[in-house]
Amino acid sequence: MMSILTVSPVFAAPGGSFLLETRNSSEVFIPEDLNEEQRQIAATAIQFAREEILPAAEAIEAKAPGAMTALLCKAAKLGFTSVEIPEGYGGMGMDKITSTLIADHLSVLASFSTAFGAHAGIGTLPLLWYGTQDQKQRYLPKLAACEWIAAYGLSEASSGSDAMNIRTRATLSADGSHYILNGEKHWITNGGIAGLYTVFAKIDGEKFSAFLVERETPGLSVGAEEHKLGIRGSSTCPLVFQDCKVPKENLLGEPGKGHHIAFNVLNVGRFKLGAACVGGARYALTHLVRYAKERRAFGKPIAEKGLIQKKMAICAAQLYAAESMTYRTVGMIDARLAAQNTDQAPGEAAKSIGEYAVECSILKVYASEMLALVADELVATMGGYGYVEEYPAERTYRDARINRIFEGTNEINRLIITGWLMKQAMSSKLRLLPAIQRVMDEVTQPPSFEATAEADEPMAREAGILAAAKKITLFAAGVASQRFMTDLEEQQEIMAGLADMISQIYALESAWLRARKLADMRQNSASVAAAMTGLLAEETIELADQRARRILAASGEGDALRTQLAILRRLARYTPADTVALSRIVARQCVELERYPL
Fold first, then answer.
1. Class of domain 413-578
2. pTM for the complete prediction?
3. Where are the alpha helices (DSSP H) in 79-179?
4. At 243, is the secondary structure helix, strand, or coil?
5. Which of 564, 133, 500 is nearest to 346 (CA)?
6. What's the rounded Cα separation, in Å, for the pair 103 and 264?
């Protein structure tokens, strides 16, 4: 068996602290920090995707009987489905970085990555984190080997993102030996192929709880496959419970504590979805670049056209940001887990990961919208061919849409991002309120003309924009908080605007720190990383300025608003970069390599 891989404890920054504290490049984990063993695992995943997943795509998309299960079993033989399961239960017992690498590089076909993620992620983790020893002994070896496929049953017709509003009921039988489940679950990934379901129900209509339900349990019936816009090859079915008798021993965790299981598992689900979007976008960008090199118009390849290069560059830059955030976040998670020694107590690993709930939601939102952009630009670049089923762009475009709905819609996750930070601030776990006050005090003083970074410092302009974006965000949050006080959470448009600013800060900072680290490591890719960071900086300051204007206008009027807008103009003042030149640097590297440039 392979050994557990470790990361430096220096990576374990507190969740959400990126908004308030300045990091240096040595404090973040980046893909270039992978050790040899991790690189070998990534290479194996890439090979599996090329030699097993893509050749099976037609059968998978047609839902050929047994095709998905057979492919998952092949992945299991390589340990991909059991990487986080301890060795004592038939798994590999490895770290989150390794499982992230696998999720990333297997995501060349969305239908497969959806089924894989539902099985190895949200389908298995509830049992792994909260199961009794008996439950783990009974089920984890089967899940590790894909003898049984796992599924996660939370959503209902009337409660998607509103998970606590489920109607499925559980009642203890008169003899105390079984729970009787009644209700329905909808949109259950792997529903038609699973052997074990984690199902959420309310005991006596009140206590939100989780249960392990085997497929052959009397009273459980699996509905017909849904006909979906995208991810057509994955199984999505309703589950119907009619006096379904679940043994008492299959209650997962404590009665009434199922919400801890649901929400903690969804943190990982959001993070892994973000990683899968990174892998999907990397694959789609490769198609975009290769087609642009081959397609000729007006006497030369369209890859030489400025507007096509602009498409390549912004896709690559946002992919670079999402990839940087992914591995920075998982580096923090692994460092926190190692420091907490969370192998013993049930749910302790989930609590440690929950500290990074805001980063997980940011990654889910940013990466899913990044993939949507790449998919759209792939169709645009291929023109008519992009609209035809015979070519990969059409399926990529359809498949990408679900990621903004999965694991809580992007709208819900935007509210989570700002709401989580505000709650941490109110409980003094995150010193956000003093930071807001410092900025509010600063902006009322006469303007300072001191530079925010040394002119000769690498990427000083990007560092200055990052610092400005943080101040703008804290300023806008301060104004909105003063206006709405405890009612701020009811102002969803403002909450979402703040979330966009916060997310863009995490994206730019992750990209900037990685580019700095690559330069320190003297990597050849440092120059293209710097160019992509420059594009992201431009995007960040423009977004911060726009969102802040909306928030200020919704929070004030008259002279107060005019004063606030004047302050914003001062904070958002910057010298624009030559984004045309930066785009051409990135695009040339994409064309030369025929892929994403890192």
1. mainly alpha
2. 0.95
3. 96-105, 110-117, 125-130, 133-144
4. strand
5. 133
6. 19
Q: Which residues of 298-335 are buried (b: 16+ CB within 10 A; e: fewer)?
A: eeeebbbeeebbbbbbbbbbbbbbbbbbbbbbbbbbbb
**What gap in Å lies between CA 53 and CA 283, rounded to an integer?**
13
Tell the residue number behind the tokens 């003093």, with chain if given. 434
Helix (H, G, I), strand (E, B) or coil at 256: coil
Give pLDDT, residue 581.
Answer: 98
Tell me the backbone φ, ψ of residue 481, rounded to 5 degrees: -65, -40
pLDDT attached to residue 447: 61
| Angle, helices 357-382/392-400, rounded to nearest 10 degrees | 150
Listed in sequence order, the DSSP H helices in 383-491 are 392-400, 410-426, 432-443, 460-484
Mean pLDDT by 10 residues, the chain (598 residues): 55 90 94 96 98 98 97 98 96 95 98 98 96 97 98 89 87 97 97 98 97 98 97 98 98 96 93 98 98 96 98 98 98 90 68 93 98 98 95 96 96 96 88 90 70 64 96 96 93 98 98 97 95 98 98 97 96 95 98 97
Query: Phi and psi at residue 279, in whole multiples of 5°?
Result: -65, -40
> What's the pLDDT at 1?
37
Instruction: Decide: 405 and 364 in contact? Cβ < 8 Å.
Output: no
Set 355, 407, 538, 539: catalytic member = 407
DSSP 3-state of 458: coil
Same topology for domains 1-409+579-598 and 413-578, yes or no?
yes
List all residues 6 or more positions away from 144 whose beta carbon is below 8 Å from its beta carbon: 76, 81, 82, 85, 89, 90, 91
Is 254 considered catalytic here?
no
DSSP 37: H
Measured CA to CA in angstroms, residue 389 lies from 58, 107, 287, 296, 386 at distances of: 12, 20, 15, 22, 8
Q: Tokens 């908080």 identify what position? A: 481
| Domain extent listing, the chain | 1-409+579-598, 413-578
Give strand ranges (E) for 98-235.
Answer: 150-153, 169-172, 178-189, 196-203, 207-214, 220-222
Q: Are 90 and 262 in contact (CB under 8 A)?
A: no
Strand-pair category, 196-203 with 207-214:
antiparallel
What's the pLDDT score for residue 165? 87
pLDDT of residue 4: 47
Distance from C-alpha of 261 to C-alpha of 55, rounded to nearest angstrom: 37
Task: List the structure tokens of 197.
Answer: 């379901």
Question: What six digits make up the tokens of 106?
Answer: 């297997």
Q: Which two tokens stand for residue 144?
A: 């590790």
Among 3.30.450.40, 2.160.10.10, 1.20.140.10, 3.30.420.40, name the CATH number for the domain at 1-409+579-598.
Answer: 1.20.140.10
